[in-house]
Amino acid sequence: MRVQGPGAPGGPGASWDSSGTELLPAGHRVGDWVVTEPIGAGGWATVYAGTRSGADAPGAAQEPREVALKIMPTSGLAPRQARSVAEAARREVEIGVRAGHPRLIRLLDSTVLSAPGHPALDGAIVLVMERAGASLRDLLGAGITEAEGARLIAGICEGLAHLHRSGWVHADLKPENVLIGEDGSVKLSDFGLAAELTTGTHGHGPPMGTLDYLPPERWRAPLGELGVEVRPSADIWALGVVIHEVFASGAPLFSGATPVARGAAVQEYAAGRAPLRMANGVPEFWRALATDCLAPTHAARAAHTAESLLERIAVRQAAPSVPRSRTGRFGRATRIALLALAACGAIGPAIWSYAGHTGREAAPGGRVGIAEPPLQVRVFNAEKGCRERTDRDPRCSLGLAIDPMRPYTAGNVVPTRVWHADVLEADCQLLSGEVVIDESDTRSTHWFRIRLPSAGPGGGPGAEPGAIAWLPAVRTKDRPPLPGCPAPTAAR
Ligand SMILES: Nc1ncnc2c1ncn2[C@@H]1O[C@H](COP(=O)(O)OP(=O)(O)OP(=O)(O)O)[C@@H](O)[C@H]1O
């Protein structure tokens, strides 16, 4: 349940949520949808399972048949409360329209109910969403393996990284708002408190939130005309709390009988008067990651972005299959070879392609309408001077590898060159390829399999149709949610 944040004046509470589930009986029709059963309720809304009433309606074939209907009643609320509900719905719709991503629950439609004969429903806002199978909260009690926890947390980081890149802070990250699709994929939901980063560094949101996930600075945040200041680092704090819960079977990180008492424990920790005490079962890597997320001040936490955390998780996931001696091999000589790659011209033997691979296989679960590979990645050149020029100077060109399992040296690149900001199509990712260290010392074993554009993005030699190559993940800031690549041992 979400409640008002500390120090907030009155606002919509959770008073009607328990009775809300009776609002819509099974069989009730909402636009093109028929209610089947209640799924859940929060402070603003009751969520029902719905199914399409007319399968033959125009466009029906493109839409899922099973949906979730989030009903946000406004009648009976004080005008200010009704405005808050309408604002929350507006933010959900705005994110749905402007920031769609496979790691965010998909908004299909929104409408306002007209039900003059049913005063409790009249004027209610309805959000029609893709339906998830469960929430992370549902999974916590059963215990989550480290591998599964890693996958779930990586999915949350991908969703946050996308939101932050798109200029939004979620501001209410918690296990209830991490949904699990029927194919097991992670989807962030509930953007009713999301804040747009209007200044680039922070935005403003209503003085509300879920107390157990609020960062220390929010407990003292002044309430201005625009609301309270919200920064992406607030989501990172909440992520730290969630990481702990994932590996501690849902046990709260800060002790106290009530959310307010636990908030006092947060303040004690932030003031340096109490240590962070995580459950013993939290594995070392995740303990370290959560500790960084839970840095007590915004300034200390800001260094740990969702992208950088994702990168650390990717490297860690790749680590067990990379023998230590192999990683240790890459000293100065390899690094110099890597740097040389940024400047060398077109070099390299034949292009490696997978016979019979189309790159258009449906994602697991194959849901219609959810983004499927290939997905776009934009090339990033760590050399600042190269990012500022658009003349495709050969010295600023970057090479794509032929084989991600061999050192990324001049002899292992395809003829097609790419430049900063080129957009490439990736169809899968490999977390445990050869180590690559870029010019800014970022080290990664993560690679994307790229379909080479037949014209050559730089106007260089074109590739044969369907040819592929490999982009080291250090050469892009994007982290599209791609499936894993099959082990690249295929014919060369
Ligand atoms: N698309 C969906 N598919 C399946 N279940 C969903 C979906 N959206 C929400 N739910 C379920 O309904 C519950 C309430 O939804 P939601 O959190 O969006 O409502 P809310 O009133 O904004 O909640 P809160 O006040 O706790 O933030 C969720 O915890 C989740 O279990």
Describe the protein.
It holds the Pfam family Pkinase. It comes from Streptomyces flavotricini. Keywords: ATP-binding, Kinase, Nucleotide-binding, Serine/threonine-protein kinase, Transferase. Its EC number is 2.7.11.1. The structure is a single chain. The chain has 492 residues and is α+β, with helices and mostly antiparallel strands. The protein has three domains: 102 residues, Phosphorylase Kinase, domain 1; 184 residues, Transferase(Phosphotransferase) domain 1 (Transferase(Phosphotransferase), domain 1); 147 residues, no CATH class. Helices cover 25% and strands 19% of the residues. A six-stranded antiparallel β-sheet has the order 2-3-4-5-7-6. Strands 16-19-22-23 form a four-stranded antiparallel β-sheet, with no helix packed on it. It has a three-stranded antiparallel β-sheet with strand order 8-10-11. Helix 4 runs antiparallel to helix 5 and helix 4 runs antiparallel to helix 9. The radius of gyration is 24 Å and the shape is globular. The relative contact order is 0.09. The structure holds adenosine-5'-triphosphate. Adenosine-5'-triphosphate binds next to strand 3 and strand 5.
Write a brief caption for the model.
This protein has helices spanning 17-20, 79-98, 136-140, 146-165, 232-247, 259-270, 284-293, 298-301, 306-318, 324-328, 332-343, 384-387; strands at 3-4, 29-30, 33-41, 46-52, 66-72, 107-112, 125-130, 134-135, 168-169, 178-180, 186-188, 195-196, 203-205, 208-209, 228-230, 375-378, 398-401, 413-418, 423-430, 436-437, 443-444, 447-451, 468-472.
